[in-house]
Amino acid sequence: MNIRTALFSSIAVVSMASGAYAADAIVAAEPEPVEYVRVCDAYGSGYFYIPGTETCLSIGGYIRVEERFGPNRSGTSDWSSWTRGQTTISSKSETEFGTLTGVITLRINAENATNQTALLQEGYIDIAHLRVGMQYSWWDNDRSIGTGETDIISSNQTIHNAIRYMYETPDFSAGVMVDELEDAPKPAIPGEQPNNVGIEAQFYGKVGVVSGYLLGSYDTDADEGAIRGILFADLGPGQLGLWGIWASGANYYWEKSEWTVGAQYYVKLNDKWSVTPGYQYFSKTSFDSDGEFTGGDEWRAGITADYKIATNLTTKLSVQYDDPDDADDYVEGFLRFQRNF
Question: What's the pTM?
Answer without folding.
Answer: 0.86
